Amino acid sequence: MSRSAHPAGPRHADVLPEGHYSPPPADLNALDARVWSRTVARDADGVVQVGGIDVKRLAEEFGTPAYILDEDDFRARCRAWRDAFGSEADVFYAGKAFLSRAVVRWLHEEGLNLDVCSAGELATALSAGMPAERIALHGNNKSAEEIERAVEAGVGRIVLDSFQEIVRVAHIAERLGRRQRVQIRVTVGVEAHTHEFIATAHEDQKFGIPLAGGQAAEAVRRALKLDHLELLGIHSHIGSQIFDTSGFEVAAHRVVGLLKEVRDEHGVELPEIDLGGGLGIAYTPADDPSEPRDIAVALRQIVTRECAAAGLAVPRISVEPGRAVVGPSAFTLYEVGTVKPLPGLRTYVSVDGGMSDNIRTALYDADYSVALVSRASDAEPMLSRVVGKHCESGDIVVRDAFLPADVAPGDLLAVPATGAYCRSMASNYNHALRPPVVAVRGGEARVIVRRETEDDLFRLDVG
Ligand code: LLP
User: How far apart are CA 148 and CA 168, in angstroms?
Assistant: First the structure.
């Protein structure tokens, strides 16, 4: 194999400063199935294809940056979750990970329910035909208007997050002449092993009602007294991007403990528990996530065991995966603009997007991988940092990655596993225009969320 080092680029052997990277892969052209969606492959010319279309064509037709969503992969993940949990459990896709009307239709067709956490997500779900009874409304500070719209639409459940909200939802349901189905979200006091900003079950944070000190039991007491609420059960979401199921085990143990207390005090067996979302995905080949069927078996076993010990009938379980459904199904396609080797350090490869289309690296120190996708290369691995075009040095897309040393302006790079929390947290920082989401399937590509234009910026700028 011929190897051509970038003239001034550092070689990986020279520099291994502190960082998260693994050693360079044996073959930089290989596309690791752990991080790429299932229809991604290189064609005979070395160009990467997805859904039967090559990325050069996608870039020509739709421009870059663009989120490329592999519809078959997304649908297969929906089915894997649905089949793993079967008919005795419910899977609610967490729309905050990524929501559009096309996605709502796919979810509906594949038999998933939907968790929304704002009026905007609710409106999107309803406008694309998701039946209201298959929607759950979340949020730690839902407005009266959001609650009203949800009750009026007839959502299947509202997850109550505070004492005030118990009363608020009951009043609104009463005014509208409804009996609203609800769950109570509790914090179980688990330290999930994930980034502090996405851990949600320890007590010192804004979500849920603590089990500790009898607060959750008091919330149940109050909800049971209100005629316009039908208390279905208890909800716990311990955090996000979690690999270790022991946190869910502790959560299930404590939630079932509360169900037992409720039975003992009120003679009522609440019929449901929701264990939230949070299952991790592979952002780099070093991550090793569990399969939905293994998670389903583990959760069912834990709940069954805990209920047997407490002398309770096993409640209906629900889960709310977001990232694990959509995250691996998309990659972001960028074009390289500049390549700046810093001898002894690394090479900065600037792409035409950045923190406006993927804030996760800056916000959570998230790791991603990257590949040259418009051609194969047998150049030597070059320690690189893929950065965006925004006006700050924290504008990093991939902190440490090996790219072929002949990467040059005009090449296309793709960052896999960007389906979750990238478009949904995208911004107009520096008046960037948010990229489109292009769905690909069976040799066809279609825009499901279009690229913003300057007219979109001006429409809001009415001064
Ligand atoms: N259910 C509830 C109540 C949630 O709050 C969340 C996520 C989920 C389900 C879905 O969690 P997932 O399966 O997607 O991990 N922006 C962060 C993630 C924030 C998650 C917020 N809640 C990120 O980019 O990692």
Answer: 10
Query: Distance (Å, rounded) from C-alpha 70 to C-alpha 59?
Result: 15
DSSP 202: S
Q: Which two tokens stand for residue 31?
A: 């596309």
- Residues 6 or more apart from 405 whose CB is under 8 A from it? 4, 5, 6, 9, 347, 379, 380, 381, 382
Phi first, then psi, for residue 462 (nearest 5°) are -105, 10
CATH 3.20.20.120 matches 138-320? no
Tokens 């990970």 label which residue?
97
CATH for 13-70+328-460 is 2.40.37.10
On the CB side of 23, CA atoms within 13 Å amount to 4
Task: Please list every protein residue whose CB sits less than 6 Å from any atom of ligand 1.
Answer: 94, 96-97, 115, 138, 198, 237, 240-241, 276-279, 320-324, 360, 364, 420-421, 425
Q: Torsion angle of alpha carbons 46, 68, 354, 13, nearest 10°?
A: -30
What ranges do the domains of the chain cover?
13-70+328-460, 138-320
Residue of 78, 307, 391, 422 marked active site: 391
As a whole number of angstroms, the distance between CA 238 and CA 207 comes to 10
Q: Alpha helices of 64-206 — where are they, by DSSP H?
A: 71-85, 101-110, 119-127, 144-153, 163-175
Global pTM exceeds 0.85: yes
Over the chain (463 residues), the average pLDDT of each successive run of 10 is 35 49 85 97 98 98 99 98 95 98 98 98 98 98 98 98 98 98 94 65 85 96 98 95 87 96 98 97 94 94 95 97 98 99 96 98 96 98 97 97 98 98 98 98 98 97 94
Q: Ligand 1: which atom is nearest the Cα of residue 424?
A: 16
